[in-house]
Design brief:
By secondary structure, the chain is mostly helical. The protein contains 5 helices and no strands. The longest helix is centred in the middle third of the chain and has 19 residues.
Length: 115
């Protein structure tokens, strides 16, 4: 099974090591304990969005760029293990999501962007 927290941790570690920085340097800059950052990098802890933003800022990386990288890696990993998120293969046996129409229905969604 592919775990998002593990893939996020791997991406953060890769970015930190590419910069030749220590856990201590990044944890200090992000204002997170060294042990907790280490657990995040090893995929043992799930970081909140606020903590991910702080770590990204400490690394000089945009959160959107990190998440895009992880999304791409996740897609490849799921494809490799034959996971449920394969392109063109419908998921069966799953009830429709709340607020979403059943197949064949139409819906209009409004998305608001934060200013």
């Amino acid at each position: 099974m592919v775990l998002l927290r593990r893939m996020l941790g791997e991406a953060l570690r890769r970015r930190r090591q590419d910069q030749h920085r220590t856990l201590r340097e990044v944890s200090s800059a992000a204002r997170v304990s060294l042990g907790y950052l280490s657990e995040i990098e090893r995929g043992q802890k799930e970081a909140s969005s606020e903590l991910l933003a702080a770590i990204c800022a400490a690394l000089g990386v945009r959160l959107a760029d990190l998440l895009r990288e992880v999304s791409d890696d996740l897609e490849l990993a799921e494809f490799a293990v034959g996971g449920p998120a394969r392109v063109g293969v419908p998921m069966t046996g799953m009830p429709p999501m709340a607020g979403m129409p059943a197949r064949g229905g139409t819906s209009t969604a409004v998305v608001e962007r934060a200013a």
